[in-house]
Amino acid sequence: MKIYTSKETKKIDSLAIKETAETGFTLMQSAAEFSLDVLVSEFNNVDEVLVFCGKGKNSGDGFLLASYAKEFGLSSIIVMCSPTKELKGVSKKAFNEAKSNGVKIINLNSLSKIKISKKAVLVDALIGTGLKGDLRKNIKEAILSLNKLGDRYPVISLDLPSGVCADTGFANEPSIVADVTCTFVTQKRGCFTSEGKALSGEVLYSDLDIPKKIFSKVLCNSHLIDMEDHLHKIILRDENSHKGEFGHAFIVGGNKGYGGAAILAAKAAAFSGAGLIGLGTRPEHLEASLLSCPEVMTVGIDSGQDLEEYLEKPNVIAIGPGLGQTAWSEQMLQRVFWEANKRKISVVMDADALNLLTKLKLSAKLPKNIIMTPHPGEASRLLGKSIDEIESNRFEAVSLLQRKFNCVVVLKGSGSLVCYSKGGKQQIGICEAGNPGMASGGMGDILTGIIAGFLAQGLSLIEATELGVDIHAKAADLKSLETGEAGLLASDVLEELRQLLKYE
């Protein structure tokens, strides 16, 4: 599923009007009809609808929704948050239709004077994708009022929660907190990453029956990741299979006091199906590793020289979990780079491997087949930007990282992004799975191990990364249904991972 920017969406909208029998108003009607269907199906006991409207095309969708809701038999109220004299074009036409159908129209200032049904649903039709610059005072007041009511009533946003940037997911203060977002024409990038992901709630989409040939005329470089696209490429195991057919992954990490991170990564590689897994770590972590997962071939490493012999056979190396930033850490990283460049093997880099990359200025020595998995803090150090700058435009940040290091990059966080170059063109995959319970120690280490395990089994850098990111998030979602999000542990994900890897 492709995901679009607001500019790309406008192009599709314009082409649909130009090349089909559709008009701006008929598309608006289709959007309102879809929204009404969602409203009555998601909230089947609803008896009243309050539609908060501004002055743009998003409000036009809201006016028609209010009109159709009244025809359906619901009490329907339009709450005007901008002067009606500012309405133009199809929005004005939609307003007049609602007015002629007898929909009650009030100003925002009058909202406190009306009695709202206990079964009411609130509709946000204030801005949608039309956000430009700072919020106007009247829109801020409207958002605050709607959110206050949203503590008691469900909220549906039309196209996008007002206040959220359609292209980045960055949320202004304030922004609408929606339970459901009905989005039209295209899926919007802002609904799936950063703050926009949480604020959008459940995203329900309609292409408004625009022909597929219209979409094909607009170039788009973003898509939703689906593990099913790559899962079938994991080797099916014949009766006479042996462990050597499923690759050899080697994990490097676990400095003094940080052995758990490396052990988690190694276990994740094992649970993802790699045939052989090795772990090079500080000698004091040997016992813990053997007790935790005796299937992992763990060796104690005191120096880069000690590591050398263990890097001669693996077809994948992952480095970073619990690595630290000491002299020992530097030796590990430089030895891994040397071996990877010599043997042209893949390397997954996480955590302190990324921090050391910046500190030691080792970019020139980077192996060609690299996957980087930074969280926003690590990304900020790699790019020399603040975390706020990273989070304000995650798409730009991951794009810059990919170009700078010429590798596959995962920018972790709410709506993790995977960026890579394919056919000379940059592509960005968006993971819609995942939950706040994943904000706990060790989750990134699990992801590193999973990706390494898939690489070991022969998947490409892109395939292993997209599959790893999505299945990791979906495993966490499954586990959270059982345990809840609070207290969700990284190790909890492993059993669910194995379930998702089952073949039907």
Q: Could you give a short description of this structure?
A:
Helices cover about 40% and strands about 15% of the residues. It has helices spanning about 5-20, 25-40, 55-70, 90-100, 135-150, 195-200, 210-215, 230, 260-270, 285-290, 305-310, 325-345, 350-360, 375-385, 385-390, 395-405, 445-455, 460-485, 490-500; strands at about 1-5, 50-55, 75-80, 105, 120-125, 155-160, 180-185, 200-205, 220-225, 250, 275-280, 295-300, 315-320, 345-350, 370, 410, 415-420, 425-430.
Structural class: alpha/beta
What's the arrangement of strands in the largest beta sheet?
A: 1-9-18-17-16-15-14-13-10-11-12
Question: Could you name the CATH topology of the largest domain?
Answer: UDP-N-acetylmuramoyl-L-alanine:D-glutamate ligase
CATH class of the largest domain: Alpha Beta
The rounded distance between the terminal residues' Cα atoms is 24 Å
Low-confidence stretches: none
Number of domains: 2
Q: What is the tally of beta strands?
A: 18
Shape: elongated
Overall pLDDT: 95
Q: Level of helix content?
A: 40-55%
Query: Biggest β-sheet: count, sense, barrel?
Result: 11 strands, mixed
Radius of gyration: 26 Å
Strand portion, in percent? Answer: 15-25%
Please give the count of helices.
Answer: 19
Search tags:
single chain, 504 residues, alpha/beta, Rossmann fold, UDP-N-acetylmuramoyl-L-alanine:D-glutamate ligase, 2 domains, eleven-stranded mixed β-sheet, seven-stranded parallel β-sheet, 18 strands
